[in-house]
Design goal:
heterodimer, A: alpha+beta, Histone, subunit A, two-stranded antiparallel sheet, 3 helices, B: nine-stranded mixed beta sheet, three-stranded antiparallel beta sheet, binds zinc ion
């Protein structure tokens, strides 16, 4: 059961600011999603390994060879603020 | 009440690959900020990380060297949290299917060998670096983010809570560091941040089976800090328990200047990280033949080498421990022994002259200029009596500073030992003529005057006279 408190906690962990109404809406919607999940729970999954990837591929690896980096002007071009070639971020704690 | 301390370590080791774990950016240290980055390590939308094969190889090697089981099947997961040193708001790490598990590292404390269990070793990406604009993170007005380090490959080695003292922890870290260094997968240097340690410490009354509540102290970057933190935490937690209080489960930080640990945040439960499999990366199915190939490529490990030095070379435990604590030193020792027969003398010179100079100059062992075969040559001429011990040390100093071979130094400086009796007799006679009082004393029975006269002859010969010959000639003259 998704309560108001659960929604608020998930919102906090996701850095989302929700209004009272939004919390209520999300609680209801999330509960509906869980009800749907309950249908899936009826399937017998004994002896079935959890799925790690949806595609039947494995071991996609690359060689340890240095390639091109991105020019710094481009790297910083989306930064709202920058200083000394670095991303400027607000006070952390 | 007396409490037993229970400690577990989490050790992060930076792997020595050319490129980052999931992209082709170089891992080189010291580039201008944000110049070793690309859309992948910046976490830009639409990019796809691809695992560096070398990272997998190195993680497996580290696991094999620490007696771990290598997974048949492994995968990457996202560890979700917000912090500006992460570009994606998640770190790619491994959760329930790490690449290695159930290993151990042997330690030797107080003459006893103990196995310290390793729960797991997993692969993950390093975060970027933050520069705080202010004296400390709490007083800063803001921070600057440099993502050159974001995506540098790490392995995290997690120990079981098997450690029971600061001494055991230091022995564990020393051996683990040596093992990692021997495998060649990392420089494993604490001072340079390529080996970082978190410690979990709790206390419990002796005899109690259940663990006490633990505090985790993050990011210790020197052996000294590890030792101080453990002693500090034992005192802090003892005080709390003695007062009838309860230790809070939390993450703490070490303030090196003040010598205290400070609360950082209460420990987020692991499910707060909302781990889930990273759909961008494919699962890993590890080829057993490859694992065996990697196993056979490993060099002799420090504990095995230590055992060999004690049992086959006849070195004292202490010597063997010092020499095998570093790969460079151990290789240097083997290099000398390949050309020179006396194990103990080799060890004496490495632990004495060589390490004393390395420490005095504050240089890295990698940067030693002396070649092992040159030390072997020096010890050989010393044994033959062509030079004496005092001159050998002088020659060694020159070898240490210049990397030159001993023969040329001895020749250049005219340091060859004089054993020719005719040449020494002349000096002996001169010394006797200049020191009639000592001669008189000796003949009157004060045998210690001999030592003084030998010293005078050695001095007059600039240390080059063969002391054996000097003694013999002096005795002959004085008994006349
Ligand atoms: Zn990159």
């Amino acid at each position: 059961m998704i309560t108001k408190e659960v929604v608020e906690k998930v919102a906090k962990l996701s850095r989302l600011e929700l209004t009272e109404e939004e919390v209520a809406v999300h609680a209801e919607q999330l509960n509906k999603i869980l009800e749907t999940m309950d249908i899936l729970k009826q399937i017998d999954t004994d002896g079935i390994e959890p799925l790690a990837h949806v595609l039947p591929i494995q071991n996609v690896l690359r060689e340890d060879e240095v390639g091109e980096c991105m020019p710094r002007e481009k790297v910083l071009s989306n930064a709202p603020e920058q200083a000394d070639g670095m991303f400027q971020v607000p006070k952390i704690v | 009440m007396d409490y037993e301390v229970v400690i577990g370590c989490e050790v992060h080791v930076e792997l020595k690959t050319k490129t980052k774990i999931f992209c082709n950016c170089p891992t080189d240290f010291g580039g201008a900020p944000n110049t070793h980055v690309c859309p992948v390590c910046l976490g830009l939308p639409g990019t796809l990380p691809v695992l560096n094969k070398k990272v997998l190889e190195y993680a497996i090697k580290a696991g094999l060297a620490t007696n771990c089981e290598i997974a048949e099947y492994s995968k990457f997961d996202r560890k979700n949290y917000f912090y500006p040193d992460l570009t994606k708001a998640y770190q790619i790490s491994q959760f329930d299917l790490p690449i290695c598990k159930n290993g151990y590292v042997e330690i030797n404390v107080g003459g006893k060998t103990k196995k310290i269990g390793l729960t797991r070793i997993h692969m993950e990406e390093d975060a970027g670096k933050l520069v705080h604009q202010g004296a400390t993170i709490t007083s800063a007005t803001g921070s600057l983010a440099d993502y050159n380090r974001a995506g540098v490959p790490l392995i995290e080695i997690v120990s079981e809570p098997d450690l029971r003292s600061a001494e055991e922890v230091l022995a564990f870290l020393t051996n683990l560091k040596a093992i990692i260094e021997y495998t060649g997968v990392s420089d494993a240097k604490m001072e340079q941040g390529s080996l970082r340690c978190d410690v979990n410490i709790s206390l419990r009354p002796f005899g109690q089976e259940e663990f006490g509540t633990r505090a985790e102290i993050k990011n210790l970057n020197s052996f000294r800090a590890v030792e101080r933190v453990i002693n500090y935490e034992i005192d802090r937690q003892t005080d709390i328990l003695e007062d009838g209080g309860q230790v809070v489960q939390e993450t703490r930080t070490w303030d090196e200047g003040k010598g205290v640990t400070l609360s950082l945040r209460s420990k987020e439960d692991s499910d707060e990280y909302r781990y889930f499999p990273d759909p961008d990366l494919t699962p890993l199915v590890i080829d057993r033949a490859w694992v065996e190939e990697l196993r056979s490529s490993l060099p002799e490990m420090p504990m095995a080498k230590r055992k060999r030095l004690i049992e086959e070379e006849g070195l004292p435990e202490y010597d063997a421990g010092v020499i095998t604590s570093s790969k460079v030193l151990a290789e240097f020792y083997d290099g000398v022994r390949a050309h020179y027969g006396d194990a103990k003398k080799t060890s004496n010179w490495i632990m004495g002259e060589l390490l004393a100079r390395v420490n005095a100059e504050g240089i890295e062992l990698e940067d030693i200029k002396v070649k092992p075969e040159h030390l072997a040559a020096l010890l050989t001429v010393l044994d033959k009596g062509e030079i004496n011990g005092k001159i050998a040390k002088e020659v060694f100093a020159e070898m240490f500073n210049t990397g030159k071979e001993p023969e040329s130094i001895i020749k250049e400086k005219g340091l060859v030992q004089i054993s020719d009796e005719g040449a020494i007799v002349a000096i002996v006679d001169e010394v006797l003529a200049n020191n009639p009082k000592s001669v008189e004393d000796y003949r009157a029975g004060k045998k210690q005057a001999m030592g003084f006269l030998v010293g005078q002859v050695m001095k007059a010969s600039k240390g080059q006279a063969n002391p054996g010959v000097v003694n013999k000639l002096l005795a002959e003259r004085l008994e006349q």
